[in-house]
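Journal club side-thread
Mid-discussion, someone asked how the predicted structure for our own chain would compare to the paper's figures. Pasting it here so we can look after the session.
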Amino acid sequence: MEQNAESSRKSLLEAARLRARERKPPARRIEPADIGGPLPLSCAQQQLWLVETMEQSGHAYHVPLGFSLRGQLDAAALRHAMQRIVERHQALRTTFRTGDELPVQCVGPAAGALGWRETVLTS
């Protein structure tokens, strides 16, 4: 009897999930913003800009990264993968500039956006 109750419960849950999926409108594709020129800052970007302006450090959100690897590295494949990530994500190419009155965000071009410097250290 306990098995039948559990089986009925699972059937009811599955039926509810199917009905919910049928009623759900199809997901809309998010189109990239038109970046023909400077764009206004989002609320979060305004906060970052304000903190950076007040502190005037210029380094609060710059995190240099270095790591060491052992074994063979396909540097061309790594460089290509990193370039594709930077091309795909506008946030990685976005800088803030002070416009006429308010700060704006400027999205750099995707092509050649990755500044790549490779240093080989051998012992």
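Post-session note: The radius of gyration is 25 Å.
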